[in-house]
Amino acid sequence: MLTARIAVLVSGGGTNLQALIDAQRRGELHSGVLSLVIADKPGVRAVTRAHEADIACAVIPRREPGFEEKVLEALGHYRIDMVVLAGFLGILSADFIAQFPGPIINIHPSLIPAFCGKGFYGLKVHQAALDYGVKVTGATVHYVNEVPDGGKIILQKAVEVQPGDTAEVLQRRVMEQAEWVILPQAAELVAQTIMK
Ligand code: GAR
Questions:
Q1: Fewer Cβ atoms within 10 Å of its own Cβ: the N or the C terminal residue of the chain?
Q2: Model pTM?
């Protein structure tokens, strides 16, 4: 059976990358194989996670010229069929999206269309949710298009906000209860659709 070759783009801790690695080990992610990790800065924990899991890893600094060209080159070199943005904090250009022929999916730590788009990333998303006073938040996996966080939704999971939550506490709960659950599920679903 054919399996989709998956590249994972990361910027930091890589806990979502770890959730993908663990799902692959458990056999829950089986229609795709994690084939490349691209980190947009050196020295991040996600790079260590890739090495520990024996997955090829490239570090391509996002602030340096030619970032997107270098990423596209790496995706071609590793014959990548689909891309997962797992805690990747940059925004890919419309040009990049048009040039990569396969699906690109992203995990966002809110229930889109709330608290998303340019400027909403990491802890800022959770702080905005707390400031607004929402009682339910969550995570969303969606296709990436030219609108930041604007592509069609694949999976969502809701998480309750608790009295006294800080952005850090809420971030951790959203990761544990939603992100690490739905990202591997969505990666499997999308891999199945492209290898049909
Ligand atoms: C995760 O909460 C992810 O949803 C978020 O950054 C964190 C990265 O954690 N992504 C965004 O905010 C994208 N807009 P990780 O590196 O441990 O997976």
A1: N
A2: 0.97
